[in-house]
Amino acid sequence: MNEFALLVAATLSAGTVLAIAGLGLLINERAGVLNLGAEGMMLVAAIAGFATSVHTGSDVLALGAGALAGAVMAAAFGVLVIWLNTNQYATGLALSLFGGGFSAFLGIRYTQEKLSQRSQFELPWLSDLPWFGPALFRQHPMVYLTMAFALALAWFLYRSRAGLVLRAVGESPEAAHALGYPVRRIRFLAVLAGGALCGVAGAYLSVIYTPLWVEGMTAGKGWIALALTTFATWRPARVLLGAYLFGGVTMLQFQLQGEGVQIASQWLTMLPYVSTIVVLVLISRNPAWIRLNMPASLGKPFFPGS
């Protein structure tokens, strides 16, 4: 029972990285912009956050640096695809490749650095509960903030005027423009918000989840976060649940290895990515359902006055 509680706790922590990035990408896509550069943004933010933590010792500043790094890269992407009308798919891939190389260059001097001892967070009284305490109430505050943000984002998208405008831009930018809404500006702000959240996810990964810097340490998490938005049919609560599902699969490989299960480690390492492919294959069997939920203008450029 204790082992299962620890597995649940590890699942929540691992899923938080995917949830933060997935929620950021959902904001992009709800505005009609598809950003395939999540992996690159997360890597640059990871080294930015780690370096900040090394020099300041502050997790808050490190997460802020990660958010800033992600937002800067997203701003470059936004200028290219929103105002210069470059291809969203090609630009996103270029951003991801650039982020991988640039983060490796910046991180050369930090590969041997170590962060100070991490603080152990516990919720008073609740952390002492049998099973539930170690499973749910001894997490870093970012885990709980991510859950709260997912609920807040759902309210924003479906209950607030600004959220309805954002969804309208993603569904029909021409109609939103005809009503007087600044479509390009709204899309750019959505891209900035999404980039900042991917940046927070990258910094969380290098500073809190695995407090070290290793080249390419995201290991495909940006791509899994992209898949999550489709898996969740562009709904925040489902992104959160999907992130914990993939986080659980990731932790399961370590659990099986720890118990001495006689399976090649390479097969266990493949589990998160195989599960991603399986889920996408199952979802793609019903393309009408995907089209019903997908923002109608996703990936399509918008030319005012055309």
UniProtKB/TrEMBL annotation:
Q: Name one Pfam family in it.
A: BPD_transp_2
What stretches pass through the bilayer?
Answer: 35-54, 61-83, 89-108, 142-158, 188-210, 266-284
Q: How does it sit in the membrane?
A: Multi-pass membrane protein
The domain of life for this entry's organism is Bacteria
**Primary location class:** membrane
GO CC annotations on file: plasma membrane
Alphabetical UniProt keywords? Cell membrane, Membrane, Transmembrane, Transmembrane helix
InterPro entries, sorted: ABC_transp_permease
Q: Where in the cell is it found?
A: Cell membrane
* Keyword rRNA-binding recorded: no
Query: What Gene Ontology molecular-function terms does this entry list?
Result: transmembrane transporter activity
Q: What is this protein called?
A: Nucleoside ABC transporter membrane protein
Protein source organism: Sphaerotilus hippei
